[in-house]
Structure formats: C-alpha cells, structure tokens
Here is the input.
Amino acid sequence: MERRINGVTVHYEEHGAGVPLIALHGAGVDHREIEAAVEAVVPGTGFRRIYPDLPGMGRSTADGLTGNDDVVTLLGDLVDRLDAGPALLLGHSYGAYLARGVAAQRPDLVLGLALVCPAAERSGDVPAHDVVHEDPAAYDELDPAHRAGFDEYFVVRTPATARRYRDHVEPGTKLVDEAALERIFSAWRVEVGSQVCTAPTLIAAGRRDSFVGDADAADLVERYPHATLAVVEGAGHALVHERPELFAALLIDWLDRGRVPHG
Here is the structure.
C-alpha cells in the first residue's frame, strides 16, 4: 500500500483490524524486519498493525526531507491520513528515536509507546561486539556474501537468527537511498521536548548492544513515568530476534496496558 504525503511516497503494509499499532523499523533496512518480529508474537485479532517503510528505505521516497524532524512530521501526517490515531507506537533503534519525536510533537496521536534498543541524539558508552552464542550451523542458512552483515548485527548466532536475518533483514539493506539518508541524518537531532510522557511505555535494551548500549535507554525512565524498563542479558541490538520469547512477553504486557485510553 502507498500514500502520497507532501510529495513523499510512503509505502506500508497493514494487517488486521482493531486498536492501531504502528511499528517503525531501524536505519538501513525496511519494514520487513520489525514486521517479522512483531507479527510473530502479536495477537492475531484486536490490532490493526501498520508497518511503514521509513523515508529513503524500502519503497518509500524522501523527496524534500532535510532532517529527522521532517520525518517525524511526515509520520504524524501519515497517521492522520490513515485515520489511525491515537495509536500504539513502537520503534526499534532509529525508529524508536522517531517514535519519541512523534510522542512529543503529536501526543494526541499516541496511545502507548514502545522503545526497543532506542537510538538517541548521541550514544554513550557501548560494550564491545562480543558474541553471546554461536552455533556453526547458523552459517548453513546464509549465502557467504551475507555472513559478514549477519556477524556485524547479531551476537546470538543460531539457525533461527540466521533465517531472520536472511529473510527479513538483509533484503531491506538493498533498498536504501544512501544520498537521501545522508541528507536526512545530517540534521539528526529530533525534538523530543522536555515534558514527561504519561502514555503506557515499554523501554527494552540489550545488555550486549554494541550499537547504542543500554545506559541511555535506562536514563529514559524519568521521562516516561509509566514505563516498564527491561535491560536484557544475552541480547544485542537485534534483541527482537535474539530473545523472541522475552520480547513477546514484554510486548504483550505493553499491548495490554496500552490498548485502553490513558489519562
């Protein structure tokens, strides 16, 4: 599906009906990564799940966008056009940073907020990229050309995580408009405001996340007084794939808390 908004084509996939749930993927991939993670655990009924390709990635364009605040505005306009607000808003990595911007700039659109391995204006100290578990059979699932990308992302390397990478992560890496992202990321800072956000919130971070770490995620709790915070041992930046059972439990709890209006 596509929507044309202020000269930008936004591609998205949609499933189901009910409470709107909008999930935003990270940088350098497309909607298929977060779609795979969420669809594996979200209840089959009761939620309208919407997975957009962020600008310059997947099948979405980025014409006229000059910074991340432009992307935040576009996402708010998308929710309006889809008649999908207020919605549960989930973001992974870069998508979580954008989700915080939407919650700050358009709180009327946000029923609940889930921030998974959230990127921020800048990252503090991050751990080394150390492998937690490696099953040699994982590499039987991958073309040799894809193994370096898998190793760079995953710290839990099993046949299951290799299939997730092969089927839902790697294909999106081929559909990136590098020039558009360079332009947008040159104005990286998102206006996240200074007010607390009272929406039901989930903040989840991987203890072994060598991309954004876990300390910044923990610091967000003060800004989100109704947040569940989980810092997950045995997972890195690919937490949603590496610890799917725990991610499922956290997600279901958040969906239960967020499906009703908050005051």
Q: What stands out?
A: The chain has nine helices and ten strands. The mean pLDDT is 95.
